Amino acid sequence: MTQNYRLDNIGLINRDKKISFKFNGVTYFGYEGDTLASALIANGIHLIGRSFKYHRPRGFFGAGVDEPYAIVQLYRNNETEPNIKTTEQELFEGLEATSVNCWPSVNFDIGAINNFLKIFLPAGFYYKTFMWPKSFWYKIYEPFIRKAAGLGVASIEHDKERYEHKYEYCDLLIAGSGPSGLASAYAAAKNGARVILAEDKPRFGGTLLTSEVNIGNQTGKEWAENIISELKEMPNVIVKNRSQVFGYYDHNMLVMSEKLSDHLPKTKKYNPKQRLWYIRAKEVLISSGSIERPLVFGNNDTPGVMLSSAAKEYLKVYGVLVGKKPLIFTNNDSGYETAIEFKKNGVDPIILDTRKEPKSEIIDEAKKLDIQIKFSHVVVAAKGYKKVKSAEVAKISDDKNELGTLENINCDCICVSGFWTPTIHLASQSGNKTIFNKDIDAFVPGLSKQNETTLGAANGTFTLEETLKNSFDSGYELSKKITNNDNKTSSPIVMEKKSTTHDKFWCVPLPKGKTYKRFLDFQNDVAVSDIEIALKEGYRSIEHVKRYTTLGMATDQGKTSNLNGLQLVSNIENKIVPEVGHTTFRPPYTPVTIGTIVGREIGKHSKPTRKSPMHSWHEKNNAVFVDAGVWLRPRYYKIGEETLFEGSKREAKNVRANVGVCDVTTLGKIDIKGPDAAELLNRVYTNAWLKLPVGKARYGVMLREDGIVMDDGTTTRISENHYHMTTTTAQAANVLSHLEYYLQVVWPELNVNVVSTTEQWAGAAIAGPKSRDLLQKLFPNIDTSNDGLPFMGYLEAELFGVHARIFRISFSGELAYEVNVESDNGNFMWEKIMEIGKEFEIQPYGTEALSTLRIEMGHIAGSELDGRTIPYDNSLEGLVSKKKDFIGKRSLGRKAFVAEDRQKVVGVVPIDKKTSIPEGSHLVKDAKAQIPNPKLGYISASCWSVEYDNPFSLAIIKDGKNMIGQKLFAMSPLKNKTIPVEIVSSHYVDPKGERVRS
Amino acid sequence: MRSQNEFSYGGDATVKRPELNKEVSDKDWDNFVYNRKSLRGKHKELWQHISGCRQWIKVERDTATHEIFKTVKAHEDI
Amino acid sequence: MSSISALRDAHIKGLFGDHEGKNESELLRISELKDFLIVQIVKYKKSSITNKDIKIDNLNLNDETLTVHCNSKTRILWNGPNNWLLISINKEVLKEINEKLKETDFAITNLSHSRTIIQIEGKNTKEILKKGCPYNFNELKNNNCLNSVYNGMSVTIDMLEDKPDKIRIFTLRSFGESLYHSITDACLEYGYKNV
């Protein structure tokens, strides 16, 4: 197909590079520099998709970010993306795209039946229908809505592209490279400021690319090109195209999405497809321009109705005619510019101006070119279903209420111009309290909350002269504030045509007897009648009207519909627009891909991982790992085909029978030094610490101020004022912050230093009846007998030339020791333990076996210290000093904490000695009782007791001390289990704790 | 000025912990442990620079606008 | 006796990323630093010693925030008020520390095994840091140091030289492989050489 609507000698595209692409399976040609939209229009394609609700034919409306409906399903490099705006997607060789929301094809779409049912599908129908009968929801309504909903199709393939992040700082961030952005960037950069200039489109210059203006002795376009070249050479300037500043956050931080590769058929290897910039700027200049406002009339959603500035952009930038018989419908002078461009390029436009007798230089120029103009005229309705074929027009009375006789004008496109809506999104997001400017009938930024300034059209300044002057001044003033330099750049002379005021009129009334649909939101099919219904039904707040009608809630986020909607609401309510207010602007300005937001935190690296120094040994020995926070810990070491249950049982049994070794590096270690170290311990632990001898360890319990147990561990006195505290893996960071808090904020008079040494030492727990023998062989030169190294003792020694610390402490309840060596030697230590332990039948054991051992011993751990239990509940009341004050003591006196029937930890055994009890099961007296069944307690931890070869659990139960011997039921509704159980002592194995002391 | 993700929030800075070993009424203790005002506006609070110097600091921040007014060291008054 | 550094299994020598067609001097150079002495030195609040009076390996303990006092072997990083991290390739300095800094005035803690140290050199070094850390690296100069986060991991950053930039980044030993992955991943678009 030839490009029938392409002109030969106008446009900024590269005619040397022809590009082939496919739309709905048909191949077309365009040029490098085209967007998919401009290439399609050049080829005479005007039907792009179907609207969301009514499936009405949709075409191109805009030329950029304001496009409300020309979206497609894009295919690129074997991947697909939905809802891509054809007006933003640059053409690349091999691009493929298909229409969305239509079946079987965009030309013949069955969904269009909705169009004929539209009287039954007004706004708010989602809320009123599909409600009854309730049972129909899941089987009938929901699947139907699911099929009918949505535009494009999301890919279910893994996204193979790279997305990166970057943090950057600058003095001035300038959003937009139109005249105001270029001028302020230049002035600031020349004055020594660090500038980032961000432009959403591939080309810099904004409106200077399409307006007939002169700056100094250059055209606007030439001036823009020269400024950009100079800026690119300056070392203090970063110039970025294809980069959109889409969000403004606190403390002047903004986010920008840089599209590096969307315009290429394939992303270059090692390059990201898109990059998210977090930019912290001292000052922000918002030069985001403005978006043309549509005029509202009957069937104004017909393909061929588009913004007149878009028609002008297609012509001047892409060399494409949007029509050969254009009708320009305008309420201001901007429409004339488009008409003049058509005329200069061999096409005869007709202008319909709503105004009666406007006079200006630009209107004169149009008249001089013999362009036909009808004043006080309006388009009443567009005619044609899949494409504009003609316009029904009429004269309109001065008060805009009465229409004259209807007549038909043949045309193939209607270019509308309803004046301009400043793009105030970023300003509003920054907290700026926008105000309504009566002169332009739109909102502009008002009082700034943060360091931001809006310039140019975004601020309601529509003359180039004033824009440039303000921008050069701002760039200079702001940069001077920051750099203290004083190089001022003067604003050049500007030649532009002066224009006159616009008409305060946007919505053409319906002629008598006609029920044309007049659309406000083209993507969500929200019409004037829908707003009227919402207001009739009592919705007053614009936020409610928006959500009830879905006005402005489509992928274009209401850029061409919000203000007209607002105007309509205020007209009907007889309020002024600022009283109605506008809905809150929230980032992103346009849709941003999830990939951009996620960056490189994907898959295995979505969070950091911590590995012990012995990790590669564990890997090589078939360890199956488990996540313990961000640590990877061996859960068990798999032999052959054994399951987790079999493996952990084997390991635990071996510990009880022989000896096992467990990697305990992950447990928190805190080095505490200082003359007041003992005093600190005495204040944070419940038991007494002032008299702990050097070379001895003690078990300690730490409470929160509310009396709840926070953590437990053993602390060893290494030397007089030097202690080594251990914590659980999970609480290591919290305990350190806890100690630092008390030392810095509450008791700054204490002279103590605390620092984490978790990483300095690798730790191995050697446990089992043969552990002493093994230890003696590992350290032949020290006395490891019961007298030489008693329970809770500490020694330092050399492990075959490597400095080691030995603590006789036990988590498993067996005779056990923990050996620490400095981390680089961790692997050496572990291999020595395994080598020398061979004769004692040593096996490594993981967290699952470790759990089994401590559970059947009744040793409490994280599952009991769940933020709800006090020392008594955990059978630790013996450790609570009655003599001294400590953190949490005062709270222990609370009535509930000293109640006679207070909860306590107990052991639970299934009566059949076979059924494992799921953790979290509830303990009740009578399984068959009516709901609510009084819950007596819950199972906190379960294991398979290797000592007794039956299931065993720990539970926290009310009146625990009196429950031993009771027969209850453990109920797990999640696992559908009800198990008869007996309550026993939590110290199932070795109740007197003889093994650790042996 | 540093990025917020280097810090960890640590509670109301105006709450003073009663002295150890001194008598405290139930009411005063409950106020210390549990009761806090949930202010909209200027709030004096504690933060720890956990990924920085590990120092606790007191910050006066507006809870609605996030504007920061003052920061002082942990043991100073705000 | 085999001591194993944090990145022994992860750091493999060679050229990676977008290195083809580039002069080696254009590439970033990544290395793991091992066998350093790392000591935390904290002066107690009640101590009456003035920092000016102390010299370790001929270097002062300084009070300027974010600065490093250094010579060719030893670097003393400001880590907080009265809190320093001493990094040295000369292990003997530990003896000098223990002799000169009394237990009553200072808390000395050996942290030599607790860190993974990655060194990055090359003109794009700061770009690598900008990809994961929110600090303003435009202001980082020679012999500046700071603590911050990189992709969620707490790190210490020490800038040694510029032209081209040479920066060391420290993290907890266990995070070593994760940090290494993040750093080298960030280097792919520039091309890097593992030395």
Automatic annotation (TrEMBL), chain A:
The keyword Oxidoreductase applies. Residues 614-884 form the GCVT N-terminal domain. Residues 171-433 form the FAD/NAD(P)-binding domain. SUPFAM superfamilies: Aminomethyltransferase beta-barrel domain, FAD/NAD(P)-binding domain, Folate-binding domain. Pfam families: Fer2_4, GCV_T, Pyr_redox_2, SO_alpha_A3. InterPro entries: 2Fe-2S-bd_N (IPR042204), FAD/NAD-bd_sf (IPR036188), FAD/NAD-binding_dom (IPR023753), GcvT/YgfZ/DmdA (IPR028896), GcvT/YgfZ_C (IPR029043), GCVT_N (IPR006222), Sarcosine_oxidase_asu (IPR006277), SoxA_A3 (IPR041117). Residues 517-597 form the SoxA A3 domain. Keywords: Oxidoreductase. The keyword Disulfide bond does not apply. Transmembrane segments: none annotated. It comes from the Bacteria. Belongs to the GcvT family. PANTHER family: AMINOMETHYLTRANSFERASE, AMINOMETHYLTRANSFERASE, MITOCHONDRIAL. This is Sarcosine oxidase subunit alpha. It comes from Pelagibacter ubique.
UniProtKB/TrEMBL annotation, chain B:
InterPro entries: SoxD (IPR006279), SoxD_sf (IPR038561). Pfam families: SoxD. Gene3D superfamilies: Folate-binding superfamily. It comes from the Bacteria. This is Sarcosine oxidase subunit delta. The lineage of its organism: Bacteria, Pseudomonadati, Pseudomonadota, Alphaproteobacteria, Candidatus Pelagibacterales.
TrEMBL record, chain C:
It comes from the Bacteria. InterPro entries: SoxG, TrmE/GcvT-like. Coiled coil: none annotated. This is Sarcosine oxidase subunit gamma.
